[in-house]
Amino acid sequence: MAEDIKSKVIKAKKASIELSSVSTEVKNLALEAMAQALDKERTAILDANAKDLEAAAELKKKGKLTQALVDRLKVSDSKIDGMIAGIRDVIKLKDPVGDTLSTLELDKDLILYQVSCPIGLIGVIFESRPDVVPQVMSLCLKSGNATIFKGGSEARESNRTIFQILVKAIESTDGMPAGAFQLMETREEIMDLLSLDAYVDLLIPRGSNEFVKFIQKNTKIPVLGHTSGICHIYVDEYADLDTAWKVCFDAKVQYPAVCNAIETLLINRKIADSFLPKMAEMYLGAGVELRCDEDSYTLLEKRGLSPLSRATEEDWSLEYNDLILSIKLVNTIKEAIDHINTFGSHHTDGIITENASRRKAFTALVDSSSVMVNASTRFADGYRYGKGAEVGISTNKIHSRGPVGMEGLLIYKYILLGKGQVVADYAGENAKPYTHRKLDLKFENVN
Amino acid sequence: MAEDIKSKVIKAKKASIELSSVSTEVKNLALEAMAQALDKERTAILDANAKDLEAAAELKKKGKLTQALVDRLKVSDSKIDGMIAGIRDVIKLKDPVGDTLSTLELDKDLILYQVSCPIGLIGVIFESRPDVVPQVMSLCLKSGNATIFKGGSEARESNRTIFQILVKAIESTDGMPAGAFQLMETREEIMDLLSLDAYVDLLIPRGSNEFVKFIQKNTKIPVLGHTSGICHIYVDEYADLDTAWKVCFDAKVQYPAVCNAIETLLINRKIADSFLPKMAEMYLGAGVELRCDEDSYTLLEKRGLSPLSRATEEDWSLEYNDLILSIKLVNTIKEAIDHINTFGSHHTDGIITENASRRKAFTALVDSSSVMVNASTRFADGYRYGKGAEVGISTNKIHSRGPVGMEGLLIYKYILLGKGQVVADYAGENAKPYTHRKLDLKFENVN
Fold it and tell me: Where does the Aldehyde dehydrogenase domain lie (chains A, B) (predicted)?
C-alpha cells in the first residue's frame, strides 16, 4: 500500500477525536469561513473546472465519456451559489453531537447517560460531481466526523481546488484541528482505502449501482447506500382511479432516471379493466415502453392500444432507469406483496387504495425502507423528507434506512458517572439491588 | 451448498414477513407457551443434556475439551428455572414493534411516519451454552425477528431438544407463522450461512474472540458483537484515593475472565507515589500478576513490593482475561487518552477523578462504547444497564453500540400517507412548498 494513503487516513482518524468535541460555535465559524472562501475563490474554481471540462471533451470525442457525465462535471457561478447556500443551510441545522438520548439511574449517585457522538472517520467515494465535496464536508464537519474524499478522476482539478479552498478555510478557524479532511486522487488509492477497516468507520459511496456494488464487495467497512432501486406501485381493487392515474404517472414519468421512480406496476385483476387502458394511454402518450405480462397484454391489445412489448421473467428484476415500465396483473394484495418482497430492492414501494385494512396490510408487510400510500414513490428523498441535506438513501437493515440526513453520521456512547461504586457490591449474596429509574437529567448540564 | 440450509433460510426469511406483524397479544401467548413447555419437558431436556455431558467427558479425557466448557454445557433444574424466568421477563417487556418514532407533515394531508419494525432474519451462532436458545428466541420473537440458530456441536443433543420443544410451543399458538425459527447443526453449515447475505440481515456471534473474528472475516452480513475487550482505567492526579483503590481492584479482580475487566492501569505520574504502592499490595494479595512499565517497576521495587514483571510493548494490546494487569505511568491525561484510543478495543474505559474539566475531557475524547467515571468498568453489561436481557456488547460504530438489548434487533421504515399527491406539483416553476411541520400523531392510531 502507498504509505501516504495510510498516513493520510491515520492523520484523519487522529483528528477525528479532536473534531468530535469541537464546540458548535467553532464549527459554525468554520462553516461560514468555508462559504466565504468559495465565494472569494470563484475564479480559481471555474479555472480548474475548465481544465476538467477540456479533458472531458477530449474523452467524449473518443467515446469514453457520455454527455450526461460531462454535464454533471460542469461548475457554473450558479452552482457555486448553490454550494454556498448549502453550507449556510448546514449552519442552521442543530448541532447533533452531545445530545442526551436517555438517562437512567442504576443506583443512588450512579447515573448512566446515553449521549450522541460522531461515528469517527467517514470515507466518501463519489463519481464526477464536484459539488459533493462542500455538501458532504459541511455535513461531516457539523456532525464532528473526519472525512476522506475520493472523487472521480474526470473532476480531479475541480475537486482538488475546491477541497484546498475549503480545508484552508477550516484550518484557519481558531479551535479547529488540522488534518480532519483528506483528499485521495487516484483510483488505486480506493482499493487501499477499502482495506483500512481498522481506521475507517463508515463508507458512503455515491454513484452508479455497479460502483456501489463494487465497493460493497471489496471492503469490510460498513457501507451506507443502495445499489438498485426497483420500486413498485400496487393498484388495489379499492383504489380511487383518479389518484391511481395521477400517482402512477408521476412515479414513472416525472423523472425516470432516478432510484425512486417505479419500474413495475402491479394491478389487482378486479380493477384492471377500469384502470389500465387509460393508464396505458397516458404512458404511451409520454413515450413509455410498456412491457406487459400475458393478461395485461391481452387486455390492452383488445382495447387497440399499441405499441406493447411482452415482459419476460427477467423484467421483474430490472431497474430500467428509463421510460420503460413492466406491468403485471395480480389476483390478491398478498400476491402483490410477495412480488414486491421477492423482486424489489426494499427501497420504496407504494399502494393505491381507499381501504384501511388493505393499507394496513401493505404498510405492515412490505419490507421496504419507504412505503407510500396514495402518494408518488418519488417523494422518497432527504430534501422532501425534511432532512435539509441528504447523505444518501440506504437500503441497509441496520443503523439508517431510507433517505438519510445528518442523523446517519451519528452514534452514541454510554457514560456512567459514579461515586466509587463497584460491581462486587451488586453481586453474590446480599447483592445491592439496581434502581433502574429513568431520569430527566441532561449530560450536557452536569457540572 | 447443502440445499436444505438454503431452503431453511429462505423459509425463515418468508416467515419473518408474517412474524413482523403478529400482534403483541399473540406473541406473548407464544412466549408463555414456550415457558410452560420447558417446564413440562424437563426430563427430556435433562436426558438430552446427559448425552452431551457423557460425550463431553470423553472428549475431556482426551484433552479436547476444558472443564470450563463442560461446566457451561451442563443444564440443571435450576438452569431450566432460569430459562423459564428469562422468557417471562421478556413477556413483561414493552412490544418494540410499530412505535411511531417521528411524524412530519410534508404538506396538507401528506404525512410521513417513521415507524419501528423488526430487522428481519437474524443468525445467532454460539458456542456450547444451551441456555442461549430460549433467551435469544424469546427476544427475537418479541421483536418480530425470524432467527436461525447454530450452536456448538458439544451441545447438539441439548440444543436440538430445547429448540424442538420451543418451536412446537410457538407453532401451536394460534396466529404464529410456521418456520420462523430454524436450527442448524453442523459446522459446515456455518460457512453456508455466512454466504447467505441476500437473506440474513444480521449475525450475532457469541463466543470467544477468535470465533467472532472468524465470523467477521468470512461474511458480508453485518455482525453485532465485539472481538476483544482491552479495557483501561486512568487514575488522574485529581483522583480520590479511596475511590481509586476500590474501583481499580473491582475492575480487575471481581471477575477477571470477562470482556469488561481491565487489562491496563494508567496512572498519572503526579499521584503514582501516593496511589500505586497500596494498589499493588492489594492486587498482589489477590494473586494478580503485575506487568509494569519501567517507571512503575522502579517505584514499586523501591517500596519492596514483589513479585513484579516487566511489561513489553506487546502487553498494551493483550487481553489477558486472567489475573494479570499491565501498569503504565503517564505524564498527562492526554497521554492516557491517546494510549486508550490507540491500544484499547473501544469497549469500556474509565477515569478516576474529582476534577470536572478532566472528567469532561475524558468522556468527550475517549472513543469507547462505555466510559466510566469513578465507577467500575464491570458495570458495562446489559442487565446492569437496565436492558432486561442482553443481545450482546457491540464495539461497532453504527447501529448499536455498547451493551445491546432488544433495541438492537429493530430498525424503522418510513410510511408516507397521502391523498394522491405527486412530485411534479412540488418541482419546477410554481413548485408547491413543503410545510415540514412536526406533528404529534401516532401511526398506530391512524384509521
Answer: 3-282
Q: For the purposes of burial, counting CB atoms within 10 Å of the CB of B242, is it exposed (0-12), middle (13-18) or buried (19 or more)?
A: exposed
Cα A308–Cα A309–Cα A315 angle in degrees, nearest 5? 140
Is the entire prediction scored with pTM above 0.90? yes
CATH code, B3-95+117-217: 3.40.605.10
Mutate to test the interface with B, among A122, A379, A404, A412 (most CBs of B within 10 A): A379
Residue of A nearest to B114 (CA): A370
Which residues of B are less than 8 Å from A18 in CB distance? 365
Fold of B231-386: Aldehyde Dehydrogenase; Chain A, domain 2 (3.40.309)
Domain spans of chain A?
3-96+120-217, 231-385
**Exposure on the CB side of residue B210, measured as CA atoms within 13 A:** 1
Class of A3-96+120-217 in CATH: alpha beta
Tell whether the model's pLDDT for residue A27 goes beyond 70. Answer: yes
- A chain contacts of residue B361, beta-carbon cutoff 8 Å: 21
CA distance B205 to chain A (A): 16
Strands (E) across A23-120 are located at 100-107, 110-118
Chain B nearest C-alpha distance from A254 (Å): 6
Cell 393505491 -> residue: A352
- The answer to whether the CB atoms of A106 and B220 lie below 8 A apart is no
Instruction: Tell whether the model's pLDDT for residue B327 goes beyond 80.
Output: yes
> B175 in helix, strand or coil?
coil
Assign B2 a pLDDT band (cuts: 50, 70, 90): low
Query: CA B252, B254, B258, B261: dihedral to nearest 10 degrees?
Result: -30
What tens digit of pLDDT does each residue of A145-197 get?
A: 999 999 988 999 999 999 999 999 999 999 999 999 999 988 888 899 999 99
Instruction: Please tell me the distance in Å from B165's CA to the nearest CA on chain A.
Output: 28
Return the H-helix or E-strand segment holding B240: none
Architecture of domain A231-385: 3-Layer(aba) Sandwich (3.40)
Closest CA to A130 of A153, A150, A151: A151
CB contact under 8 A, A420 and B374: yes
What is the chain A residue with the closest CA to B10? A342
Nearest to A384 among B106, B249, B384 (CB): B106
Confidence of residue B1 (pLDDT cuts 50, 70, 90): low
Whether the CB-CB separation of B155 and B184 falls below 8 Å is answered with no
| Amino acid at the residue B322 | D
What DSSP element (H or E) covers B426?
A: none
Predicted local distance difference test score (pLDDT) of residue A1:
61
**Segment (H or E) for B110:** strand B110-118
**Of A106, A242, A411, which is closest to B398 when you measure between CB atoms?**
A411
Report, as an integer, the average pLDDT of B384-410.
Answer: 92
